[in-house]
Amino acid sequence: MILQQILRLSSLFHSAVATHVRRNIGLSAIVFNKAKELDPVQKLFLDKIREYNTKSKQAGGPVDAGPDFQKDMNESLARLQRAYGEGDLTKFPEFKFEGELTILLNSNCK
Fold first, then answer.
1. Of 3, 14, 91, 94, whose CA is between 20 and 30 Å from 109?
2. Are 89 and 77 within 8 A, CB to CB?
3. PANTHER family per the record (predicted)?
4. Residue 58 falls inside a structural domain
């Protein structure tokens, strides 16, 4: 009986220690990565992404896109509007869940 309780306590202790160690390793990895300097390839990659971001904000769209790109984009949008109907195809759609989904959610909550 005492042996079973000791084993039960040791398994609880083991799981608590394992969770604690796992969290500390995760946090120390984040702190270590922030403390050290990025390697040159990572730094170059991040610099290029930031540079493209500023250029695209200044240009108001894709960077270094010529008139051919805009022509292809307009043709593709026109083709999609013919196929799928009207609406602004450059924006992400907004979904409003009403009807069956609302009924299902309300019935599962009771």
1. 94
2. yes
3. ATP SYNTHASE COUPLING FACTOR 6, MITOCHONDRIAL (PTHR12441), ATP SYNTHASE-COUPLING FACTOR 6, MITOCHONDRIAL (PTHR12441:SF10)
4. yes
Give the predicted TM-score (pTM) of the model: 0.39
Q: What is the pLDDT of residues 47-68, one digit of tens each?
A: 999 999 999 888 877 888 888 9
Of the ranges 27-31, 45-49, 101-105, the best mean pLDDT one = 45-49
**Four-CA torsion 53, 55, 59, 63, nearest 10 degrees:** -90
In a domain, 56, yes or no: yes
Q: Both tokens of residue 63?
A: 């960077």
As a whole number of Å, the CA-based R_g of the chain is: 28
Give the range of the structural domain holding residue 22, as residue numbers without chain letter.
1-62
**94 in any annotated domain:** no
Does 48 reside within a domain?
yes
